Amino acid sequence: MKEFRYALPVGETGWTVEGNVTTSFRWDYDVEGAQLLTLYDKGKRQQWNAAERIDWSQDLDPENPATLDDRALSIFGSDIWSRMSKAEQANLRRHSQAWQVSQFLHGEQGALVCAAKIVQQVPQIDAKYFAATQVMDEARHVEAYSRLLREKFELAYPITPPLKALLNNVVSDTRWDMTYLGMQVLIEGLALAAFQVFRDDAKNPLFASVNSYVMEDEARHVAFGRLTLRDFYPHLGTAERREREEFVIASCYLMRDRFLADELWECVGLPKQECIAIGLQSERMRKFRARLFTRIVPMIRDIGLWSDKVKAAFADMGVLEFAEIDLTAVLARDAAVAADFDARRAPV
């Protein structure tokens, strides 16, 4: 195997988040919610081994690892694209897909840290139970995406500044509900939509199966955040709820901008600002960025952070229409598709 490479030096991209975390112990062990216990039971039953469930003997095409349509590239059809040689286009495909999987990987490490933080912080014992299963889920996701990059792409990218900024805010905040809101609702909600795009569009079965199996777990995680916050936020005062709504608005703008891929264009030797401008003007990319909010918008409405200011921000982003989506049905489909891959997979 070739030497595994990082697009940028690892020593330049790591960081440490300082913060004080309050630890909540419970000595009565009385469970408070049947729905959370149901999720916990499902989380126990649906544990899986990434080394066994995924068929790692499958290869990726070095010129188009996920076997994606070139229209998935934001500069496809532009003058820059047409001037590129076949070899340069193949190199961009590989780097673009490695960049995307790298962001999945970094987001999963963030989720791993936040799930552990929820176990420590949340006051309800049943929530601690479920969050403990999520810690194992997230470790498995980090393992799977890391192996995909290390063994198949042999290339990885650092975390994007918008995702780093959001993770920094979530991890450093001392309030347990902000960990839920930032990770379970916003980051995981957007990740589910992104996973779906690449699961559905990728023709390579290895690439698609990793995303599908991760989605099975993430659907439970999003449901966990939804259940907990839907019960908690109606009891907040107006000022506290307004603060959460401001956080949602700022975070959603950050996440919308995380797919501009600033680092990618520089690494493949293309003019960064011109490529970003093309992506911002692309109707296909506009629809892709909007599609990322199909889980977040109805969930924000469902948990009660649905002020006129939040609705105005979603309208500005062009995603307000997603408020009418049946979130329960969407999450059920997210969880069910993994079984299709299991059914199609030949015995190893």
Strand order of the largest sheet: 1-2
End-to-end separation in angstroms reads: 23 Å
Order of SSEs: EHHHHHEHHHHHHHHHH
Helix content: 55-70%
CATH superfamily: Ribonucleotide Reductase, subunit A
Can you name the CATH architecture?
A: Orthogonal Bundle
Named CATH topology = Ribonucleotide Reductase, subunit A
Write the layout of secondary structure elements.
Layout: E1 5-6, H1 34-45, H2 50-53, H3 79-83, H4 86-121, H5 125-153, E2 155-156, H6 161-172, H7 176-201, H8 205-232, H9 238-256, H10 262-267, H11 272-281, H12 283-291, H13 296-303, H14 308-317, H15 327-344
Parallel strand pairs: 1-2
Can you offer a commentary on this structure?
The chain has 348 residues and is an all-alpha fold. Helix content is 67%, strand content 1%. It has one domain (33-344): Ribonucleotide Reductase, subunit A. The protein has helices at residues 34-45, 50-53, 79-83, 86-121, 125-153, 161-172, 176-201, 205-232, 238-256, 262-267, 272-281, 283-291, 296-303, 308-317, 327-344, and strands at residues 5-6, 155-156. It has a two-stranded parallel ribbon with strand order 1-2. The protein is globular, with a radius of gyration of 20 Å. The two termini are 23 Å apart. The model has no long low-confidence stretch (mean pLDDT 89).
In short:
The protein is an all-alpha fold and 348 residues long. Helices cover 67% and strands 1% of the residues.
Features:
single chain; globular; Ribonucleotide Reductase, subunit A; about 350 residues; mainly alpha
